[in-house]
Amino acid sequence: MAAKLGGGGDDLEMSHEINVTPFIDVMLVLLIIFMVAAPLATVDVAVDLPTSTAQPQPRPDKPVFLTVKSDLTLDLGDSPVPRESLPAALDAATSRDREQRIFLRADKAVSYGDVMEVMNGLRNAGYLKVALVGLEGIAPK
What we know:
With 141 residues, the chain is of the alpha/beta class. It has helices at 21-37, 86-94, 112-124; strands spanning 2-4, 13-15, 51-52, 64-68, 74-76, 79-81, 102-106, 130-132, 135-136. Helices cover 28% and strands 21% of the residues.
């Protein structure tokens, strides 16, 4: 509650006005945070990624994510893709631009050999620029 000092009288009047400026400021900050964070959550495939201490690289506007799930199935973006039709699906996703970087995500439970098989499939399809995606971790001391 706020008190308003009158013109010289000893009685204090009660002010029933609420200052909404701080509430508006908080709402605008939250709006900006959600506007920035919403485009970053583009892939909805649940996968348990390993952590990495490498410096994060800038991300393109429309990245192409290839995900190897723990049951060894593949997802291109959010849709499942059979291994035999992976080259055609990649060509459709990249408009046949084989210079575009493919972001490869693999579950922690997937073995190194299975990840290498997928990378060989990417190389055989003509996609030589592959980025491995992981969670950011803290560097060991």
